[in-house]
Write a structure and sequence with these properties.
593 residues, eight-stranded mixed sheet, four-stranded antiparallel sheet, 25 helices, 38% helix
Length: 593
C-alpha cells in the first residue's frame, strides 16, 4: 500500500491489523543523502568511528520514503507459505506553528536526488503529500501538555513506528544505515554517540535485528551484495539446495503470498520497481526468508550483528551491552592472518582472479588494495604468504593488515603536502630523527623518477626559450605565476598548480607518487585531469607516464586526500564543511522543510 496524507488513516489501520502474529518486519528507506563529502568508508576506521559517522549522516539528511513489509506464517504456523504485506510511505518532516523559529531542515545530496529521480520517485508527491513525522523527543517537547493533547496527524509516521516498537517484532535490514535513519527520525533527532546508549535505544524498539548484509559475509557463499542481485542468488541457491539435498521431502516449500495491494503493485517483481522503499523492503523480507532456509543455524547465531562496509569489523549489539566493545572482528585472528596486497596500477588486471585460483579468500579494500585472508598463523602464515606472492603477479607490496593501518594513520597525520603548502623537487622519507629539523620534513632521495621519460636535460640552459619544450620547469613556468626572485623554479604551491591546470582545457596536473614499505619501493604515475579539477571531486586515473612532469615524491594516499581543487588554501578551508575533494564527495544543498 502507498501511504500519503490522503491515505494515512486507511494505511495505518491496515498496518496495525497485520502486526498481530507477524514473524518479522523488513524495512527499507529512500533518502536525501547517504554519505558525507570527504569521508569515504575506509578500512582504517574503527567501529566506533563508523557508528559516529552513521549518526551524523542520519541527522544530516532526511527520509523520502519508508518501506515496511510485514511477514506472517500462513495457516497453522508450520506451512512454508509466508504472507507478505508491503507499505511504501512517503515521509516529510512536520511543519507547524509549534515549530516557529525551529523549522526542520536537512541536506539534499545532488547525487542522491538524481538517483531517486532516475528510479521514478515523485518529488512533488513527497513534498505535497508526504506523511509528516516527528521524533518522540520532539513530540514530548512541542505537543504534549497542550489543550488538545497530542495530535495524531502531527505525529504522522511516528504512529507507525510506535505500533512497530510496541509489537516487539524482529526487524530485518539490508545494511544498518536504514536503522540509524529511523532512530533519528522517530526517537531522537540527535542520536547518542555512546554505543551502549545507542544499543539500549535499539533494544527498546525491537528485541532482535537481522542484517542481511552481515549474513552475506557470515554465510560466505555469495558474491554479490547489492540487494536485487543478492536476492536473485539466494533464491537460486535455495532452489538448488532444495533439489539436491532432499529438502523438499523434509520441509514444506517456501512460498510468498502477497496480500492485497502488495500483489497488484509488486506481484511481477520487475527491476523497474527497484529502489522504491516498499519494494526493497519486500525483497529484503524474501531474502531473509531464503537465507533462513539455506542455513538456519548461521542465521540464528548472527542475530543482532550489524554490517560495516569496508571494514573487518561488525557491530555485535549484545557484546556492546556486555563489555562496551563496539567492534568485533569478523575473522578469528588466532587461526587466520590478514595481509594487504598493494596493487601495481600497470599490471594488476588478474590479481584478484590469481588469488582466488590459489584458493585464498580476498576482499577489495579500494581500487588499489586487496585484503587477503590466509588460513594460517605464525610461521605457517609467513610461508603461505611467500608462496602466494610467488604465484601472483601485479602486487608491488605485501604487508600485515595492522602494519598497513598504522602506515595509513601515520600518513594522515604526517603528510608531505598540505593545501597551501609548498612542493619542492622530489622528496623521500629518510626515517632519520634529527632534532634540528621539522619532523615532517622530507629529504631529497636518490631514486630517479624520470627513467621512462624522454630526456630533455641535455640543453637545459636553452629550454626556457623554446616554445615547444616539454621539460618540467618550462611547462610549470607557463602554468604558474611564481616569484621572479625565486632562484628555484621547481618550487610551486599546490593550489596554484591546480588552478592553472583547471584554467587549461588540455593541461593535466601530473604527480609522481610512491607506494613504499620497509621491503619495497616503487614509483608510480598518477594523473589528476583538469576536467576533474573543475568538479567537486578529484578523480584519479592511471595513465602512461607523460614526457614531462613535476615530480612529487612521497606517500600517495595523503596526497590524494589533501590536494583540493580550491585556488587558495583559505577558500578551501572556509568551505570544507560542505565540500571536499574525495572520491565519495558530491554537492549538497541545505533545504528548509
Amino acid at each position: 500500500m502507498e501511504g500519503r496524507i490522503s491515505t494515512y488513516k486507511k494505511v495505518l489501520a491496515d498496518f496495525e491489523s497485520r502486526l498481530h502474529g507477524a514473524e518479522f518486519v523488513a524495512i527499507d528507506t529512500e533518502l536525501t543523502g547517504v554519505d558525507i563529502a570527504g569521508e569515504p568508508d575506509t578500512f582504517e576506521e574503527t567501529a566506533q568511528m563508523r557508528v559516529e559517522k552513521h549518526c551524523r549522516i542520519a541527522e544530516r539528511y532526511a527520509l523520502i520514503q519508508v518501506g515496511f513489509t510485514i511477514v506472517s506464517r500462513k495457516l497453522d504456523g508450520t506451512s512454508g507459505q509466508l504472507s507478505c504485506a508491503s507499505y511504501n510511505l512517503f515521509a516529510f518532516p512536520y511543519m507547524g506553528p509549534e515549530l516557529l523559529g525551529r523549522e526542520p531542515g536537512f541536506f539534499c545530496q545532488a547525487s542522491a536526488l538524481q538517483f531517486n529521480a532516475q528510479h521514478r520517485v515523485d518529488f512533488n508527491k513527497w513534498v505535497r503529500e508526504g506523511i509528516p513525522y516527528v521524533s518522540r523527543e520532539d513530540e514530548d517537547l512541542y505537543f504534549k501538555n497542550k489543550e488538545n493533547g497530542t495530535s495524531e496527524k502531527k505525529a504522522g509516521l511516528l504512529q507507525f513506528w510506535k505500533l512497530l516498537c510496541k509489537a516487539q517484532i524482529p526487524l530485518i535490514v539490508h545494511c544498518p544505515l536504514d536503522l540509524f535513519f529511523l532512530l533519528s527520525a522517530f526517537e531522537r533527532r540527535v542520536l547518542p554517540r555512546d554505543a551502549q546508549e545507542l544499543v539500549h535505544m535499539i533494544r527498546k524498539c525491537t528485541p532482535t535485528v537481522y542484517d542481511t548484509a552481515h549474513l552475506h559475509g557470515a554465510l560466505g557463499t555469495f558474491k554479490r551484495l547489492a540487494l536485487l542481485k543478492f536476492h536473485e542468488d539466494a533464491k537460486a541457491k535455495y532452489e538448488e539446495i532444495r533439489e539436491d539435498s532432499g529438502m523438499r521431502t523434509m520441509r514444506p516449500k517456501l512460498e510468498f503470498i502477497l496480500e492485497g495491494e502488495t500483489q497488484s503493485r509488486y506481484g511481477k517483481q520487475e527491476d523497474t520497481l527497484a529502489h522504491e522503499a516498499g519494494f526493497d523492503s519486500l525483497l529484503t523480507a524474501q531474502l531473509f526468508a531464503y537465507l533462513r532456509e539455506i542455513s538456519p543455524g548461521i542465521v540464528r547465531e548472527n542475530a543482532n550483528r550489524l554490517f560495516l562496509y569496508r571494514s573487518c569489523e561488525y557491530i555485535d549489539l549484545a557484546r556492546v551491552l556486555d563489555s562496551g566493545a563496539v567492534g568485533t572482528n569478523m575473522f578469528d585472528l588466532a587461526r587466520v592472518t590478514l595481509v594487504v596486497a598493494a596493487l601495481d596500477p600497470w599490471d594488476a588486471t588478474n590479481v584478484a582472479s590469481l588469488i582466488a585460483s590459489a584458493g585464498v579468500q580476498y576482499k577489495w579494500m579500494d581500487g588499489r588494495h586487496l585484503l587477503v585472508v590466509l588460513r594460517a598463523s605464525g610461521g605457517a602464515a609467513v610461508r603461505k604468504a611467500a608462496e602466494l606472492a610467488g604465484q601472483v603477479r601485479g602486487v608491488v607490496a605485501w604487508m600485515g593488515f595492522e602494519e598497513w593501518k598504522a602506515a595509513q594513520a601515520a600518513a594522515a597525520t604526517s603528510h608531505p603536502i598540505e593545501l597551501g603548502g609548498r612542493i619542492k623537487g622530489s622528496y623521500w622519507p629518510t626515517g632519520e630523527d634529527d632534532a634540528n629539523e621539522d619532523p615532517r620534513a622530507w629529504h631529497a632521495g636518490p631514486m630517479d623518477l624520470t627513467a621512462d621519460i624522454e630526456d630533455t636535460s641535455d640543453d637545459a640552459d636553452d629550454q626556457d626559450d623554446d616554445d615547444d619544450d616539454d621539460s618540467v620547469d618550462h611547462i610549470l613556468r607557463h602554468w604558474v605565476d611564481h616569484d621572479a626572485n625565486d632562484d628555484d623554479p621547481g618550487e610551486w604551491t599546490v593550489p596554484n598548480i591546480l588552478a592553472a591546470a583547471t584554467a587549461s582545457a588540455t593541461a593535466s596536473v601530473v604527480v609522481a607518487m610512491t607506494l613504499y614499505t620497509a621491503e619495497a619501493m616503487q614509483s608510480r604515475w598518477w594523473v589528476l585531469s583538469s576536467a576533474a579539477c573543475m568538479t567537486d571531486e578529484v578523480l584519479v586515473s592511471s595513465s602512461s607516464p607523460p614526457k614531462a612532469m613535476f615530480c612529487v615524491f612521497g606517500s600517495w594516499t595523503p596526497v590524494l586526500t589533501h590536494i583540493q581543487t580550491s585556488s587558495s588554501s583559505s577558500s578551501s578551508s572556509s568551505s570544507s564543511s560542505s565540500s571536499s575533494s574525495s572520491s565519495s564527495s558530491s554537492s549538497s544543498l541545505w533545504c528548509q522543510a
